[in-house]
Structure formats: structure tokens, C-alpha cells
Amino acid sequence: GTMNPWFGRPKLEVEVSWKPEKVEDGHSSGKLVIRPLRGTKFTSVDLSAQWRVLVKVPVHLFGSDAIRSWSSSHSTSGRSPQWDPDASGGHFDIRWTSNGGTSSPRHQTDASTEALLQKVLKVLDARSRKIDAIAKCTATIEQRTTSLEHALSDRK
Fold first, then answer.
1. Cα–Cα distance for residue pair 55/32, rounded to 1 Å
2. 83: left (phi over 0), alpha (psi -120 to 50) or beta
3. Model pTM score
4. 8 Å CB contact between 66 and 29
């Protein structure tokens, strides 16, 4: 059903279980379980309405598979619905790492990073050579300008 907000704010009590496997160097991984228990002040036009809980969890920091969803079974009906206490809840495998949701081995990521770094270094080296060439031209122009200035001042 649809909530009618004029009867007070509905509340949902959930059980959250977090079992970390690794929390280190900006990485966090572990098992997350979310289980709905009971609600209060739930209202609907249909007195026999039952409810489901939809949970969306960021299991990776980025990537196409970053968000996972889970939907509960139906609750009991009424203003204070309850969910099956024996239900297992939504289980999520959390992997917040620098490579997002990809499961490629670290050496492949390192190889692609190394290749990108080499390209950047080549571009910087080429630009550095161009800057050096421009600096030499500028020095030559400055020398000629100084020579011309001296020649003109000697004529006076």
C-alpha cells in the first residue's frame, strides 16, 4: 500500500549485522546483513495491506555493479507490521576498494597504471624538449637585442 503521512511518521526497526574482514588503507570489506523486524504507525487505505522493505547498498565504491538491492518478504498487515523473525534478511558482500567492483588481479591494474604512467612521462619529456628549444630561441633573441641596443647606443 501507500503511506498516508498525516497519521504520524512511520518507523521501521531493522537489525544490522556488520562483520568486517578488512579495514585498512582506505579499503573496507566484509559481510553486511540487514533484516527488517517490525514497524509502527504504518497506514494504508487498505487495512489488510502488507509491506515489503527494499534495501539498496553500495557494495563497491564505483562501477556498474556498485549498488545491490534486496527486497524482503511481505510483512504482517496492520499499523504495526512484523516480518518473519526466522527470515535471513538481505546479505551483502561489501568490497570498498580502489578498483571499485572489478575483480581483476592487482598486477593487471598495476600494469595498466604503469602503461599510463609511461605515456604521461613521454608527453612530459616531449614538452620539456619543446620548452628548452623555445628557451634557447629566446636567449638568442635576447642576445641579438642586447647587441643591437649596444650598437645603437655607440652610434649616439
1. 12
2. beta
3. 0.58
4. no
